[in-house]
Amino acid sequence: MEDTLIREGDNLDITKERRNATFRVKKLAAFIHGGEEIVRRRKEIYDAVEREPRLKNSVPIEFLAREERHEEQARRAVAMTDVATDIIDGSDMFGEGIYYQSLIMGRDLHSLSLHYSMVLPAIQNQADDEQLDEWLGPIISRSLISTYAQTELGHGTNLSKLETTATYDPKTQEFILHSPTITATKWWPGALGKSSNYAIVMAQLYTNGKWHGPHPFFVQLRDAETHMPLKGVTVGDIGPKLGINGSDNGFLRFNNFRIPRKTMFMKNAKVLPDGTYVPPKHAKLGFGAMVFVRSIMIKDQSMQLGSAITIAVRYSAIRRQGEIVPNSGEVQILDYQTQQLRLFPQISRTLAFLFAAYEVKDLYLRVTTQLQEGNTELLPELHGLSSGLKSVVSWETAQGIEQCRLACGGHGYSQASAFPEIYSYAVGGCTYEGENIVMLLQVARQAFLGLVKIVSSIRAGTAKLSLLTSYIAEKQPKTRSKFTCVENVSAEDLIADFEYAAREQIFYAYDLLKKNETLYSTPEEAWNKTGIELCKASRLHVKAFLVRNYFNYVSKCNDSEIRPILDQLGKLYALDGISGGGVWFTRRGYYSDDQMATVRQGIYSLLEKIRPNAVAIVDAFDFSDRELQSVLGRRDGNVYENLLKWAQQNPMNRSEISTAYIKHLKPMMTEGKSKL
Ligand SMILES: CCCCCCCC/C=C\CCCCCCCCCCC/C=C/C(=O)SCCNC(=O)CCNC(=O)[C@H](O)C(C)(C)COP(=O)(O)OP(=O)(O)OC[C@H]1O[C@@H](n2cnc3c(N)ncnc32)[C@H](O)[C@@H]1OP(=O)(O)O
Ligand SMILES: Cc1cc2nc3c(=O)[nH]c(=O)nc-3n(C[C@H](O)[C@H](O)[C@H](O)COP(=O)(O)OP(=O)(O)OC[C@H]3O[C@@H](n4cnc5c(N)ncnc54)[C@H](O)[C@@H]3O)c2cc1C
What we know:
There is one protein chain. By secondary structure, this protein is an alpha+beta fold. It has 3 domains: 142-280, Butyryl-CoA Dehydrogenase, subunit A, domain 2; 289-616, Butyryl-CoA Dehydrogenase, subunit A, domain 3, CATH 1.20.140; 647-676, no CATH class. It has helices at residues 12-20, 25-33, 36-51, 66-82, 84-87, 93-105, 113-126, 129-141, 288-318, 337-372, 379-407, 409-413, 419-426, 436-445, 451-460, 491-519, 523-529, 531-554, 563-581, 583-586, 593-610, 614-619, 625-628, 639-648, 659-674; strands at residues 146-149, 165-169, 174-178, 186-187, 198-207, 210-220, 233-237, 250-254, 257-260, 270-271, 277-278. Strands 1, 2, 3, 5, 6 and 9 form a 6-stranded mixed beta sheet that branches. It has a 3-stranded antiparallel beta sheet with strand order 4-8-7, with no helix packed on it. A two-stranded antiparallel ribbon has the order 10-11. Strand 5 (198-207) and strand 6 form a beta hairpin. Ligand LCNEECSX is lined by residues 81, 84-85, 90, 93, 97-98, 100-101, 113, 116-117, 148, 150-151, 156-157, 159-160, 190, 284, 287, 290-291, 293, 296-297, 300, 379-380, 383, 432-434, 438, 442, 446-447, 450.
């Protein structure tokens, strides 16, 4: 990060904002990103990327047609990975990897996305030693391109009903892969359509006439030389999508396609040559690649929200429209209280999500180490934390980006703002790696050792609780919330409030479930009739984690220059949640009407405090113009002249007269004239 973000020629309003900030941006950036050394490395990586001619992103991606975009993203992906090890520590996916990728690939996936984000971790963690020796080299050297093919036309969520079969034939020691129906067609896998010649294929395993559920296989799909699909394989691109159109998400069918026995991942489950099935230590170890992406995408999502709010705050600082006091001149739109309420909570959310991303990364790494030793103890906790965070974070990120777009008025709707790209990329996270509602139900059902299981064990006095769940066993306070005013409220009080709301809803949902079990004939029907309340319980449980984790993380900061900023943002995060969460905080009179009114007053006072530092705070997220790719969010604030330049480079303006005019409009006008 540079010493100062102020330069000659910058927009005067944005310069004034930076001069008036009460803290040094570098300090906050260091805290946010985990230390000065990490910020220094970010700058080093950025400079190296800028110096490398092959990593120049000269084509404005938003003007490209689908095939051109796919090709340009493939070019970038190859260049990115050609020079990666000269620039970054390739083993640090959660840190340097994700940052490096965002500098080059922008908000899109590409031909190698799944190769790195799912296949590499799956091979590292699920292949046996012999398979690792055989597969890891080609994966790293990129002599093959691979993807993760699980979802089918008929089933994405309910993996037990996937229809692709892998039937073992002991005579030839092969599996026969087959797509028995149309709905068995694999559908969605990134980079499957045209790029990949290998895929991890999830298929229902049958050996010696017995079914063993879905298992992963590493399957060659296309010829290594000609890249033509192999006989028995039908593969192609599924067509344009809401976003990520640089990626060739694909379809895939097998027609009695034979693959060798050792293409089944064999570190956990095994099929012996005679067809004997050896089960894994934990039934869901084969789902590890999904857990990796759910874990890493929390950081990715927070960075998407962070870039949206950086753009919106910078633009709001240079945009002047309307007067607050008549005849005193037009104000920066950032001065409107309503604008602040739209924007500043998104700053807090970005930080809360980022700090949660650090926690889930640590847990992921601990679980990976444990699994290497054959210990699956922490796996359910990771499944719960990553599923719950994935759900809440991707949803609130999508909502937050949309608020940022709306807050930028008409210019927010233009691709020049970058919001359409950011939104359409980020919102995919609500669906992929487990549809959000389904993941919330997982949190309720199984995760965190199972909220539902926890309640029954707490009541039975047999609960074994983890750090993430121990609050659930605490007694609900009979007194009111301790909140009196924003100045006096402590982190502990705010955490207690969220835990109160979560506990209240968890027990409410549990009791409803038990009641429904008496009303409906099966536990599954009762579960379905309690689904909405269970999802609410999971959401509040995750929110309580986010608040607790935010303040725990910030408690490490003793710097008097930036600590007040972090406290203000933390309080805003919590109070905005309480104010918007209404009913859960007022149940049993925990918050009175007067307290709620004081919460709102607290929010207004925080908005006022944050306002003078808003530009500097988003500067501390340390996004370069290269990453933001937004005319509205330019560091220098020179928006208007660059909007005009951006429009002028639009291919439609290459000639004065369009083909639409020549082919359709002109003949119509000529005919119109002849009728006069
Ligand atoms: C040098 C190199 C340079 C490289 C430079 C580049 C670097 C790039 C770096 C970083 C890139 C990062 C980019 C950011 C991220 C963007 C990438 C985006 C890619 C997106 C691709 C998308 C892929 C996909 O979508 S793949 C398909 C995903 N599909 C799903 O998620 C399906 C959802 N369904 C399920 O997961 C499950 O079926 C279920 C959980 C809904 C239900 O499962 P079921 O089998 O029915 O089980 P159930 O009976 O409910 O539960 C039984 C018990 O099992 C437990 N359990 C379930 N799942 C798991 C699990 N995964 N792990 C552990 N335990 C699990 C469950 O809790 C139950 O437990 P219990 O104890 O018995 O109660
Ligand atoms: C951008 C993108 C990239 C993707 N990349 C890949 C990839 O690389 N590889 C891959 O294999 N897949 C990929 N997918 C597929 C993705 O993982 C699935 O779409 C996702 O898991 C959701 O499954 P589904 O489509 O079957 O949704 P459905 O399960 O059909 O969901 C539809 C609705 O039904 C509800 N629903 C379903 N089941 C339940 C339930 N039990 N209880 C309550 N409600 C329920 C959901 O909440 C949702 O509202 C990708 C998808 C997208 C959008």
